[in-house]
């Protein structure tokens, strides 16, 4: 599998180019500012980009959608409540294929109402729900500490420990991690009641 991680934009965003192989069918996840290196790689590696997968609708994760779409003809995929001009609207539990690659959607509100994870081939693109060593903010419009609790401590912690975490920003000590490592080391995933979690976020 081809999986390229690009740190681009002023906020240390990660954009991902994924395909079954060079010359194969694939996706771009969260096209951020400064998308030119990704566009160059699409051309150089002859990837047939079928979809643009947005983990949520914040500008720094979608600003490159138009450029990727213009270059490749790819369709934009986002949660059905995302305020985007998506071509494909998805919900929790939806599955789809891109060539031989299989993707599953997990709805994880908390950072935004439309936040989702994309789980595929031993990887999980977590957007701004889960970073390496941290979780996304809940104090922006559409954010909810209570929903973040449910997403992290009733959903993320039950994912396969072996899944490789592909975060939306380079905010951690390493650019990727695993669910198992985050459960062991990420202080936001430690066992807490909802009341304890809400108090912890207020601190």
How would you explain this protein's 3D organization?
By secondary structure, this protein is α/β, with parallel strands linked by helices. The chain has a single domain (2-202), classed as Metallo-beta-lactamase, Chain A, CATH 3.60.15.10. Helices cover 23% and strands 32% of the residues. The protein has six helices and 14 strands. The protein has helices at 36-44, 59-62, 65-72, 145-153, 179-185, 194-202; strands at 2-8, 13-19, 25-29, 48-53, 75-79, 88-90, 95-98, 101-107, 116-120, 123-127, 130-131, 134-135, 164-167, 177-178. Helix 4 (145-153) packs across helix 6.
Low-pLDDT ranges: none
What's the CATH topology label? Metallo-beta-lactamase, Chain A
How would you sum up the global shape?
A: globular
Count of folded domains: 1
Widest β-sheet, arrangement of strands = 1-2-3-4-5-6
Reading off the top of the CATH hierarchy, the class is best stated as: Alpha Beta
Question: What number is the mean pLDDT?
Answer: 97
Number of helices: 6
Q: How many DSSP-defined strands?
A: 14
Strand fraction band? Answer: 25-35%
Distance between the termini: 42 Å
Q: Return the string of H and E elements.
A: EEEHEHHEEEEEEEEHEEHH
Strand count, sense and barrel status of the largest sheet are: 6 strands, mixed
- Evaluate the radius of gyration: 16 Å
CATH superfamily: Ribonuclease Z/Hydroxyacylglutathione hydrolase-like
Helix content estimate: 10-25%
Structural class: alpha/beta
Under the CATH scheme, the architecture is 4-Layer Sandwich
Blueprint (SSEs and pairs):
Elements: E1 2-8, E2 13-19, E3 25-29, H1 36-44, E4 48-53, H2 59-62, H3 65-72, E5 75-79, E6 88-90, E7 95-98, E8 101-107, E9 116-120, E10 123-127, E11 130-131, E12 134-135, H4 145-153, E13 164-167, E14 177-178, H5 179-185, H6 194-202
Parallel strand pairs: 3-4, 4-5, 5-6, 10-13
Antiparallel strand pairs: 1-2, 2-3, 7-8, 8-9, 9-10, 11-12, 13-14
Helix pairs in contact: 4-6
């Amino acid at each position: 599998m081809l999986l390229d991680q690009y740190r681009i934009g002023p906020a240390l965003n990660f954009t991902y180019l994924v395909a079954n192989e060079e010359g194969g069918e694939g996706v771009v996840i969260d096209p951020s500012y400064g998308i030119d290196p990704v566009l160059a790689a699409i051309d150089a590696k002859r990837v047939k980009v079928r979809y643009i997968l947005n983990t949520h609708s914040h500008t720094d994760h979608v600003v490159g959608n138009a450029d990727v779409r213009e270059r490749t003809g790819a369709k934009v995929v986002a949660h059905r409540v995302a305020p985007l001009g998506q071509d494909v609207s998805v919900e929790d539990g939806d599955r789809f294929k891109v060539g031989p690659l299989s993707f599953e959607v997990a709805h994880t509100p908390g950072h935004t109402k439309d936040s989702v994870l994309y789980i595929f081939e031993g990887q999980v693109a977590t957007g701004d729900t889960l970073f390496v060593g941290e979780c996304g903010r809940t104090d922006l419009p559409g954010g909810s500490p209570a929903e973040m609790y449910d997403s992290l401590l009733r959903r993320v912690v039950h994912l396969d420990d072996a899944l490789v975490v592909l975060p939306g920003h380079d905010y951690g000590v390493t650019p990727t991690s695993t669910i198992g490592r985050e459960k062991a080391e990420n202080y936001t995933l430690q066992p807490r009641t909802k009341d304890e979690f809400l108090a912890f976020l207020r601190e």
